[in-house]
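We examine the record.

___
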Amino acid sequence: MSRRVAREYTIQFLFSMDFNKSDDTDKQFEEFLLHMEEHKYDDEAIINKSSKDYAVEITKGTLQHIDEIDKLIELHTTGWKKERIAKVDLAILRLAIYEIVFTKDVPDSVAANEAIELAKKFSTDESGSFVNGVLGKIIRGKDEQGI
């Protein structure tokens, strides 16, 4: 369960980053984690050291590769500009694409399934299908290119 909690924290932070731009994202993320620990929204959202470490890792990784990730999103969302995608869905896609493209320890299917579940939890009824479609295209493209 710890990685799911880490992903939840990460997408919430990525979502907030679209509204609160900062040059010091490391400090901003640490403050975000402290705030979340103080204001737990449910018992399952308790973040332990393992969850926190993974949240820091995937958040930093996503932010480090954000330009490449956003290009993949625009390439695989035919007829959609990044600005038209719901901010929550965008945060979920960014994290999932980071895990799919830039990490080796998370199977593509796990990253996609986690993203779909997060979309169902935090976004609209249609978001799960939208996220699934975009990630499916990216995974197929990755498989075809032998990445």
The CA atoms of residues 140 and 146 lie 10 Å apart. The chain has a mean pLDDT of 86. The first helix runs from residue 2 to 17.
